[in-house]
Design goal:
Helices cover about 45% and strands about 10% of the residues. It has helices at about 70-80, 90-110, 120-135, 150-165, 170-175, 185, 190, 200-220, 245-265, 270-275, 315-330, 360-370, 375-390, 395-400, 405-410, 420-440, 505-520, 530-550, 555-570, 575-585; strands at about 5, 10-15, 30, 35-40, 50, 60, 225-230, 235, 275-280, 290-295, 300-305, 305-310, 340, 345-350, 450, 465, 500-505. A hairpin with a 5-residue loop joins strand 10 and strand 11. The longest helix has 25 residues, at about 530-550. It starts with a strand and ends in a 5-residue tail after the last helix.
Length: about 600
Amino acid sequence: MIDLVPRKIKHIIEDEFTDKKPTELHLSIFRFKDGSTVDIGAICYKRTKYEHRTPDSVRLTDLSTLDKRRLRFTGELIDHLRLKPENKSSSKNKTVLSILKFINWINEQSYDTDFSDVQDVRRAYEGYTKWLFHRLKLKTGTPDKLTNNSASQEQKIARLACSLMANEHIKKIEFWATAIRYSDRELFSQTLTNNPISDEDRLETYSALCDFIHQTWSIWIKKDIEYIEISKRQLFSASDIFDQKSKNELYNRAIVYALLSFIGASGANLQVAMNATIENFSFGQTNKNTRMSGIKYRAGNKVVHPEFASKYLNIWIKWLDIRNAWLSSNNIDSNLAFPYLGNSDLIKPAPSYLLDTTKPAAIFLMHHYECKWITARQWRGFKSKLLGKASNNDIFISAEMQGHSVKTAISHYTNVSLIDAAAEISFALQAVYDSAIARTRSKSFIPVSIIDHEDRELETSIGSCQSDSQLSPSIANGFTKFAPQPNCSIKETCLFCEKYAVHADEEDIRKLLSFTFVVNELSQTKPHTDWSTDWAPYLHRVEEILEQLKTFNTNLVNEILTISEEIEHGGLDDFWTDYYQAILELGVIN
């Protein structure tokens, strides 16, 4: 195999409003307005590798794998970046790196992909979507594990890339594979799950963050301990400070924990904290609060000044000592509160991806301290909750303490006890769902006819029909007048008909699970209470039928699980695929 080598870069393409580009895009890098660069020309090669701290982030490449069919796409991507002057450089850089991840995945496949061929691009998008779904299902803590919203973002970036490759509208790309929908539920999962983040969890995690900063300071600055010890395990030794790689690893842990503990102490927005600069390095012990400045981009680049109480000052000073020692060891001068050395040896604010649950800092804390990983959003909400309690839920006092307008406080911070409220909401929604089922039944269990042969003389989109020559729908024994009334022109109502039957095979199982998938997608079209009233009886009936199939043939247990996974990857029954595409195109669902 040919060795990977750094190629000679001939062109630096600037992020400016022009359509001028060199013809040798494969020998080019793209420079953003903040001075950072990305190896955009590497897109044109089928075999590349990222090497840490190469000049201008240039990737190692196999020069023999140049694919000139990718030049047009590279040019389209450059034009796309230039047409977004309002976007931050860091956001654009992140977009390109995510696209490179998608292209790296394409490069790893056994088949060739022509970026100018629509069918090839579609095949790549479908395969990448399946790969993202696979990573979603991995166990927590697995290196390749993705959260739902991370997978949704990765798929969104892949859609953008495919749109530029195929010269198709991005909305059309959405129809190529099942969309991974961004979920607000995941953002606030600490309030909606059965195992929410409690105040005790926050205190335990906060203590772990501060303990690691203290021990890092002791081994690095004060030099009064030989090891960083957690749960009687020695993890970092004093000699690691003299090894640059080990020192950087230690610093990369400390910067994440310092950032999160700072947000917990100050209630600062994540973006503000990451970009914060220190105005005064001289902190007196009598100061009640410590002042910094940062830019809040969502507030029109407003300058804000996050403050924290004096009780946090001791940890903060230790972090500053660690930070200053690290800057000094790298001969760097910066007033950033949380400086990070980027891939191109440029100092920049700590990137948000370091805080991800799947990254080393989170895995390290959860494994060694045996505590929960708490996100920046959850820390911020915690302070708001405490301020609400401190002000006796007075919205005017709470807004003043947070530095918000009353309007902002009412919109976002009036929920004082999120966990309590979530429990009540969850209970209420479940009660509506259960009630919708109960009113349609006079029996808790209603059997279904199961067919164990291949006769499909009267099959429907939801199963099979046992009517004689003339259709005669009638409601099955056990359903009340409030249940959906069987109507042969409305196929899903067959579930409640006494003539309904189901084959104990893959085909009818796929029909049932495809129907369930579509019904769940329809939940976005109306309030939960209305959706439950309409569809809960159907979903419960499908569950009941599937349970009877499992009892009828135990081999179907694994079959049902397999088909469920295939449907999540877009493998719906033909009828329900057409139905799903129709409601997508009509805009009924997103």
